[in-house]
């Protein structure tokens, strides 16, 4: 697109940043709506919007202003997605499985990035041209959204399949434990590492080593949200700062990684997909594994939640900081650069059992809202736009990566003192 319309690096940065301007506008709104009315409809609305404006992108690409508006609206649709997903996780997933749930969902988003990188370059180089990249992904979005709207459910109680399973166990004796305990039952009991955790869905209380308030599957938020209580908590500010610092580097790589390979190492267009996809494969695999490791460490090994969250988050921030510095200042070939970027994203995946799940630890009832607040902070970084300005000079990559590394280090330092798994007591 940039070659066809002769865009400068500054114009590219402006267009790429339009997505994030829209994305930031719907984070808190998405979490609020999902926590109040249910995540199913909010996620379906978001998917419809991002698919619609993906489809429209080629039609307005010739006009920078219209393209900017289209990408901004696309971002607004996607901004509803993750807050709704985290609200759904809080409703559906027992707390002892929350790490792997968040890691699996996020790893799936990395898989989407991998798919996009693998097929986009060949499509652009084929007779179909770059426009069909957008058409194909729009069709995929609409294709997913239809069955989700038909079969999805905001809570287990709204799922007809689980309701039928629930009725199978009505009338059973209290001491009779079925081989499968359905989600949404009156009492869910899970034994992990010799310690029994109970979730009473009627009283919204869980009993274990630490009492954890669990979101009632039938409870919807009332109109009074304790904003002051939420925003005064240092744990929430740790989330905000780390989401900001983490996303600066992540969005720079997400938006500019192919340009890095092309500018610094003169990689051919047909090979860009290969070099761009490996870091996301590493990120996805490590992220998926980290979820299981986190739950195992907490519920089998008995390591305190706050320790797991702090170690994972700090390593997940320091690692990419170090390897981005190496990529910017010492990489002498595209292979070495790719290895450094892969290691950076691999280490960064550990944040999935750090900041990415912290809202489920500190305030599960308001998980969607707090995630939306955190993701708003994550979208604030001007990394994409600033990178476009810096890259008017192709020698600026060390500065670009050095700036991103500095944010990673600040985030790690903040999380070490403020972050963790302590629960906010919200009446």
Automatic annotation (TrEMBL):
<keyword id="KW-0812">Transmembrane</keyword>
<keyword id="KW-0769">Symport</keyword>
<dbReference type="InterPro" id="IPR050382">
    <property type="entry name" value="MFS_Na/Anion_cotransporter"/>
</dbReference>
<dbReference type="InterPro" id="IPR036259">
    <property type="entry name" value="MFS_trans_sf"/>
</dbReference>
<dbReference type="InterPro" id="IPR020846">
    <property type="entry name" value="MFS_dom"/>
</dbReference>
<feature type="transmembrane region" description="Helical">
    <location>
        <begin position="236"/>
        <end position="257"/>
    </location>
</feature>
<dbReference type="GO" id="GO:0016020">
    <property type="term" value="C:membrane"/>
</dbReference>
<feature type="transmembrane region" description="Helical">
    <location>
        <begin position="369"/>
        <end position="391"/>
    </location>
</feature>
<dbReference type="Pfam" id="PF07690">
    <property type="entry name" value="MFS_1"/>
</dbReference>
<feature type="transmembrane region" description="Helical">
    <location>
        <begin position="132"/>
        <end position="151"/>
    </location>
</feature>
<keyword id="KW-0813">Transport</keyword>
<feature type="transmembrane region" description="Helical">
    <location>
        <begin position="101"/>
        <end position="126"/>
    </location>
</feature>
<keyword id="KW-0472">Membrane</keyword>
<dbReference type="InterPro" id="IPR011701">
    <property type="entry name" value="MFS"/>
</dbReference>
<feature type="domain" description="Major facilitator superfamily (MFS) profile">
    <location>
        <begin position="1"/>
        <end position="427"/>
    </location>
</feature>
<feature type="transmembrane region" description="Helical">
    <location>
        <begin position="397"/>
        <end position="418"/>
    </location>
</feature>
<keyword id="KW-1133">Transmembrane helix</keyword>
<protein>
    <submittedName>
        <fullName>MFS general substrate transporter</fullName>
    </submittedName>
</protein>
<feature type="transmembrane region" description="Helical">
    <location>
        <begin position="12"/>
        <end position="34"/>
    </location>
</feature>
<feature type="transmembrane region" description="Helical">
    <location>
        <begin position="277"/>
        <end position="299"/>
    </location>
</feature>
<feature type="transmembrane region" description="Helical">
    <location>
        <begin position="41"/>
        <end position="60"/>
    </location>
</feature>
<feature type="transmembrane region" description="Helical">
    <location>
        <begin position="66"/>
        <end position="89"/>
    </location>
</feature>
<dbReference type="GO" id="GO:0015293">
    <property type="term" value="F:symporter activity"/>
</dbReference>
């Amino acid at each position: 697109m940039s070659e066809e319309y002769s865009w400068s690096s500054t114009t590219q940065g402006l267009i790429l940043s339009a997505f994030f301007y829209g994305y930031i506008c719907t984070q808190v709104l998405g979490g609020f709506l999902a926590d109040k009315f249910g995540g199913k409809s909010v996620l379906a609305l978001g998917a419809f919007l991002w698919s619609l404006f993906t489809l429209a992108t080629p039609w307005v690409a010739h006009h920078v202003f219209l393209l900017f508006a289209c990408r901004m609206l696309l971002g607004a649709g996607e901004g509803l997605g993750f807050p709704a997903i985290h609200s759904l996780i809080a409703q559906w997933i027992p707390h002892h499985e929350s790490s792997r749930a968040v890691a699996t969902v996020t790893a799936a988003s990395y898989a989407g990035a991998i798919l996009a990188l693998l097929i986009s370059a060949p499509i652009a180089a084929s007779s179909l041209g770059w426009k069909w990249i957008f058409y194909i992904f729009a069709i995929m979005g609409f294709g997913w959204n239809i069955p989700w709207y038909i079969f999805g459910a905001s809570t287990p109680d709204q799922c007809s399949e689980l309701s039928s399973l629930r009725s199978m166990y009505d009338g059973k004796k209290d001491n009779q434990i079925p081989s499968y305990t359905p989600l949404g039952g009156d009492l869910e009991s899970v034994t992990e590492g010799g310690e029994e955790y109970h979730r009473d869905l009627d009283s919204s209380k869980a009993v274990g080593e630490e009492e954890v308030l669990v979101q009632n599957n039938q409870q919807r938020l009332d109109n009074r949200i304790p904003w002051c209580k939420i925003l005064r908590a240092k744990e929430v500010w740790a989330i905000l700062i780390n989401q900001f610092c983490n996303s600066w580097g992540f969005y720079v790589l997400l938006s500019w990684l192919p340009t890095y390979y092309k500018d610094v190492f003169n990689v051919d267009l047909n090979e860009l997909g290969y070099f761009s996809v490996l870091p996301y494969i590493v990120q996805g695999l490590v992220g998926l594994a980290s979820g299981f490791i986190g739950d195992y460490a907490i519920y089998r090994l008995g390591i305190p939640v706050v320790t797991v969250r702090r170690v994972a988050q700090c390593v997940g921030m320091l690692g990419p900081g170090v390897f981005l510095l190496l990529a910017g200042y010492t990489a002498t070939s595209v292979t070495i650069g790719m290895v450094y970027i892969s290691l950076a994203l691999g280490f960064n995946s550990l944040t999935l059992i750090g900041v990415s799940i912290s809202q489920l630890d500190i305030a599960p009832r308001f998980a969607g809202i707090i995630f939306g607040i955190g993701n708003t902070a994550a979208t604030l970084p001007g990394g994409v736009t600033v990178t476009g300005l810096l890259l008017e000079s192709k020698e600026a990559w060390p500065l670009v990566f050095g700036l991103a590394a500095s944010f990673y280090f600040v985030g790690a330092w903040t999380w070490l003192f403020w972050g963790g798994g302590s629960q906010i007591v919200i009446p």
